[in-house]
Automatic annotation (TrEMBL):
Residues 486-568 form the Glycosyl hydrolase family 31 C-terminal domain. It comes from the Eukaryota. It comes from Anopheles christyi. This is Glycoside hydrolase family 31 N-terminal domain-containing protein. Keywords: Glycosidase, Hydrolase, Signal. Pfam families: Glyco_hydro_31_2nd, Glyco_hydro_31_3rd. CDD domains: GH31_NET37 (cd06592). GO terms for biological process: carbohydrate metabolic process.
Amino acid sequence: MRLYGNGQNIDIRELEDSAGFAYLSVSRTLRKGQIGSDVLHLHDTFGPEQTPLHWYGGPELMEQYYPIEKLRFDDYPYITKELHSAAIIERYWLSTAGVFFYIDKEVPLFLDQDEQVLRFTAKKELPYYTYDDEFVFNYRIGVAADAREAHQKAIERVLNQPVDIPDERMVRQPIWSTWVRYRRPISQQTVLEFAREINAYGFKNAQLDIDDLWEVCYGSLTFSTITFPNVTEMTETLREMGFRVTLWVHPFINKNCDPWYTEALSKGYLVKSHNETIGYNTKWWNSGENEASYINFNNPEAVDWYRRRLRELQDLGIDNFKFDAGETSWAPADPDIEGPTALLPSSQTVNFVRMCAEFGGMIEVRTGWGTQDLPVFVRMLDFDTRWGWNNGLMSLIPTLLQMNLNGYPFVLPDMIGGNVYGDDILTKELFIRWLEASVFMPSIQFSKTPWDIDEESITISKKFAQLHETYADYIIQRMRLAVSHGTPVNPPIWWLDPTDKIAQTIYDEYLLGEDIVVAPVLAEFATSRDIYLPKGTWRDGNTNRVHEGGRWIYNYTAPMDMLPYFVSATFQLN
């Protein structure tokens, strides 16, 4: 069907019409200066009972509301960006009516959202590529029986699914990072002392991550011999102690970091703006204004140069890397770089992340755009050490659900207790509740340690690290199902009954697979909470009491050392 009007031609095509599923495309070709804009009415009702709609998907955000009707956008360019923690920006929205919308990657997309509508606008404006005359506004609509069926169809048609699982040891044992505990700079002596403490207190490890600042200068990818006099000796000692070693790296070079900066600049390895006033200039959290540049991962020669220097670090005994940043917003605006112009600027994120994944399943990245196929952990962006929605503990589960429903099931939660930035204070209660909330997620990551708090925190932390390890085989099983079938590792609780109106709005519980309901306490000073159990028969993981689902448990008692969770009555832990 073709619609004419307002100077535009809109093609609506039936792509598929099979039993239980309809699939359409809506497309129009626009010229520079024209604007295409279509609207979703967020609060429509559906079905004979006029059930209110709820929506999922959309971007990762600092205040990660779930469902997403509470989000607000105003002429919001839909690219990966550090602002608001928008590191994952899949163009995918899913409703409880069993309808999904997917907007093609080539569309220069802007969002507006208020209490009533979510507006998708296509226009040739920065930060997108603006030097051609035509562009296409194309999106797909899928309609299935319910949200679960629609999401599975979306996985098969528009969202990639992983080709393999990441490193299993990162699932089974905690990751330890120097970042929050030591900040910068870090030293060989400090790293070894940290490892000895971890072992002395009886904790296991997946790996120890050496974070900021180990380099001669930012972008050198060369150890400072002042703080790290013998890297090979250090990595050998750590290996003897049972540790693998990862290293924090980033895609920037500061201008004072020579000879590496001069080499990159002279060989065309840096991102340059079309705007000559901006040139190669950018800023990141470890530089001043216009004092750094961003490596051009759209340039294959720059990728080879960066990758070769990482391999040289591995020759020193570094096992792998924690890749930070990678969002489009770090590069100079209006980039003059290689690649299909319709995919700029976010193709920079794609090429960076795909380069990272070449180093295997032991890495972590923190951003993505159509990279769900990669068998690597994707880390949530830095959380603050707070209780609330403002990038605190309350946002943890909504972020987990957002990532899973965008096709990223291998989620690495941020460090237990957050990053303790600014005036934030990490209390014992917040540390323990954060750990409990993370137990049934794919991995656990410590930086502030339990022994930084007190003896009881050590005991409680060991208990929950062991609980995570007990269920690690099941987590890995669900990861393999994500590979074979595209199913989320940690779905929302409505996954078990997509028609359950109460489950559709629950933001503070999650599933591990389809057999464990997790309902952590997320409020300060709380020692009880109300828990909604989805469809099924459930055995309390703490008391062994059996409950029927589809109903509330009110005032469930959960002192600080207790995590409320429920296991399917038919589940057998191998």
